[in-house]
Structures are given as C-alpha cells and as structure tokens.
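Quick one, probably user error.
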C-alpha cells in the first residue's frame, strides 16, 4: 500500500525535497499503475510478496476449488484499489479477459461471486502482505543523508465509514444524532508510514469513543 506524498510543507518549504525525495514521481507512478491490466499488475508486484502468501487452505474457508482463489481475489482487489471508481463488474471483465487469454474456462459475469470472494480474504495474510510490500518499497526508495540518514516516519489519522452490519455497529458505533437509525458505523484509523517511500508501516484502529493515544485501540502491525 502507499500514501500520497506531501505536496508542500508550508512552514519548512526547503525541506520538501528532503522529506519526500520521490516527489511527483510517486504520483506519476501511481497513475501509470492504474492503467495496467490485472495480469500486468500481478507481474509488476508479485516479486514484492512472499511466494506462499495465498496458499490454498486445507479446510473450511478458501479450501474449495474456485475461480476466485485467494490469490486471484487479492490481485483483483489490488487492481480495484488503483482504480477506485471502477465497479466490481469491471473487475470481473478483467478476470474474463485473463481466462480467455490463458485458454481457461468461461467466467460468469456475476460480480456477486467476486464480492463474496473478497469477503473471504484472510485479514492476517493481508497484513503480512502489507509488511512485505513496505519492506520492498523502502528498499527501492532513494537514500537520503537528511537527519544523518535516519528514516523519517509520519503519522496521520482519519475517520472511516464502514459497511452497515450488526458486527460493525457493535464494534464501531454510529455517530449519535436525532435519528438513531440513520448513519453508518465509524472507525478511527491512525497510520504510520515512511515519508521517503510512502509505504504504510503500521496502523491502529478504534471506534469514535477511542482517542488516537488510547492503548486499548486495535493495533495491526504490518511488520512481518
């Protein structure tokens, strides 16, 4: 995963090229990656992830032979992340084109199958993949002599609206207002990322009643 680089530093403008040496190149690269096909995106990023990250489960979830395996679903999800306005049916079209190219069986146009497969993605494997990709990004980032060559980290927080499910409502209560049945679950998110590469290194989540410094927040460390 990546974060957009800091476009300006209003208080210390001369620090801009030192704090984010990749500069506008990061934005250009993200734009270029958003133009790749599903197959091209996998080819580009596969070396950044462990080879055994999405092995078939021996039982229960993700153990059946499916079109949307964990691996394929992950790459579909990543492709959709680079093209956030693309609906799920666009993802299915990418899969259909890929299967035709490989001479495999015909894939249904039902995007509901992909949506269900995305829900089956194992969170722990996504966290492991995030850590591996962060290491790969930092290894490829330009080296600097700023602050004696020390790595520069940044922290940012946000509030995210979640799917309106009973589980989310219980863990992440809605914002209170005059209409109890109106609104969506809200999750607080604090992210630690590398300012040089833009890679997310770690993150913590909590509900609206939890402050950014609360130790009871759910800590999700992306480091392997």
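Nope, works fine. Designed sequence:
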């Amino acid at each position: 995963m990546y974060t957009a680089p800091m476009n300006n530093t209003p208080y210390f403008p001369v620090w801009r090229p030192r704090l984010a040496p990749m500069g506008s190149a990061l934005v250009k690269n993200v734009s270029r990656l958003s133009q790749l096909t599903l197959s091209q995106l996998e080819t580009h990023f596969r070396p950044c992830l462990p080879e055994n990250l999405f092995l078939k489960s021996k039982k229960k979830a993700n153990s059946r032979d499916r079109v949307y395996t964990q691996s394929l679903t992950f790459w579909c999800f990543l492709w959709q992340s680079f093209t956030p306005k693309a609906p799920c049916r666009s993802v299915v079209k990418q899969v259909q084109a890929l299967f035709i190219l490989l001479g495999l069986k015909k894939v249904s146009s039902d995007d509901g199958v992909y949506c269900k497969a995305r829900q089956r993605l194992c969170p722990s494997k996504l966290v492991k993949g995030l850590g591996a990709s962060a290491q790969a990004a930092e290894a490829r980032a330009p080296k600097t002599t700023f602050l004696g060559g020390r790595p520069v980290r940044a922290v940012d927080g946000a509030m995210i609206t979640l799917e309106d499910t009973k589980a989310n409502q219980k863990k992440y209560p809605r914002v209170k207002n005059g209409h109890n049945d109106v609104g969506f679950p809200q999750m607080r998110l604090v992210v630690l990322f590398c300012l040089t590469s833009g890679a997310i290194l770690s993150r913590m989540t909590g509900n609206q009643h939890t402050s950014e410094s609360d130790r009871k927040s759910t800590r999700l460390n992306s480091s392997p």
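The two ends are 15 Å apart (CA to CA).
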